[in-house]
Amino acid sequence: MKLSFLGAARQVTGSMYLLEVQDDYRILIDCGSDLERSSSNGQAPPTTPATSFFPFEASGINLVLLTHAHVDHSGNLPNLYREGYEGQILCTEPTFALTEILLKDAATINQKRINDLNASKKKRVKDRQAKMQNDLYLERQVRDAMENVVPIAFNRRFRVHEGLDVTFIPAGHLLGAAHIVINVFENGERKSICFSGDIGRKNYPLLIDPAPVPPVDYLICESTYGNRLHENTETPEEALADVIKRTCIDIPGRLIIPSFSVGRTQALLYTLNKLYSEHNFPPIKVFSDSPMAYDSSRVYTKNIRLLNKEARDFYEENEALFDFENFTFLESTKASKAVSDYNEPCIIISSSGMVQGGRVEHHIAANIGNPYCTILMIGYCAEGTLGWRLLNGQPTLTIKGKEQAVNARVEKIDVFSGHGDRNDLINFVKMQPADSLRKVFLVHGELSGMEAFKEALSEVGYNQVEIPTKGQTYEL
């Protein structure tokens, strides 16, 4: 049995791992976009990789397992089918629904980019356009992928091949997210492998806590927060209430929250709903400016049975998770732009979370010079993005070709991060007996974080830790 690390090796994004077992049976675990590829002009990384980077024949893959919907785990599935894969994708029902939303949105963006390049008469742009048309997936490839998804229930062993079964275990982090445990029987020996996916944190809005994983022989563990603890110790309600009070109540200001549409926005809206419904919070106008967030919120409501007890009880009492007084989903671009003329204190939640693309760029551009505006960053921002530049205190920013002074206040909280921190990661590994765990492989993190996490694991008795390089293969 061989395990190859084809993505998210010594970096955060692009999760993709190839497991090869007897009878030449090949399983791909995740097939994510590498969001850390940056272009030479410092602009945003492309929605999908600029070139096909599959170091294998797509038609030779027998099965794909998907831990969760985020594009750094799912974003290259359409490319896999375009290159000849004809098999199934196994994931949970909510992961299926959320992945379809994300991939369709990416395909729409890809089509727009190609259309824009087609309209150009410049030869160098035409050459780039021809290359992009060969590399970017469109809606038909998304359909090919989604038509082959087989939803799998949590905590049920599913036989996928002779001597091979898989189990999806709740991971928190995002609705439908799973740790995947694979049991392999070959040459008279049983071996078990766990792919952590992204590890959630306890007491996160809406989501159940990560479930324990049974003892395995090999553990592939994410390490996004391998060298960090969450900075904010208060609850999401307390942290958000404090910011709103200072930015929209004490002064008649405007609060802009860049937020990913799938997962993060739902946690925000649910927390706001609780503030207004249970804590007599002043009903400040809230705008959610993302059609994708609207579709994702419907998926959350449809899967209420998979949310935590607090959310289920709240829904039963209030009959809504995300709808409350003075709340509006902005459907059209026209409605989005019209918010600039709203003169009362308000909260605007818009994507993308890194302030790179999406409608939030318009809101930032319209308010960056307003000293009565606060921009609240609530998640990770890749280096070079507008969000990263805001967090690093640049005095001016160029948005849509126009340089502007940053007069708005920029703040950050991490209570809405869906990732477990270093202590959560250590506790996840410690579920495995140190004397029987053969190997821990660290993935999905910055190298410095992985090295610090490896050292922390060594201090608690786990010395069998590897940090694979991209393309490295291990015999298990």
CATH class of the largest domain, named Alpha Beta
Number of strands: 22
Count of helix runs:
14
Strand residues, percent: 15-25%
**Major sheet attributes:** 7 strands, mixed
How far from one another are the termini?
Answer: 5 Å
The best one-word shape is: globular
- Corresponding CATH architecture of the largest domain: 4-Layer Sandwich
Commentary on this structure:
This protein is α/β, with parallel strands linked by helices and 476 residues long. The chain has two domains: 2-228 and 418-475, Ribonuclease Z/Hydroxyacylglutathione hydrolase-like (Metallo-beta-lactamase, Chain A); 236-412, Rossmann fold (3-Layer(aba) Sandwich). It is 32% helix and 22% strand. It is built from 14 helices and 22 strands. The strands form four sheets. It has a seven-stranded mixed sheet with strand order 6-5-4-3-2-1-22. It has a seven-stranded mixed sheet with strand order 7-8-9-10-11-20-21, covered by helices on one side. Helix 6 (236-249) packs across helix 7. The chain is globular and about 70 Å long. The chain starts with a strand and ends with a strand. The relative contact order is 0.14.
Properties at a glance:
single chain; about 475 residues; alpha/beta; Metallo-beta-lactamase, Chain A; Rossmann fold; 2 domains; 7-stranded mixed β-sheet; 22 strands; about 30% helix; globular; hydrolase activity; hydrolase
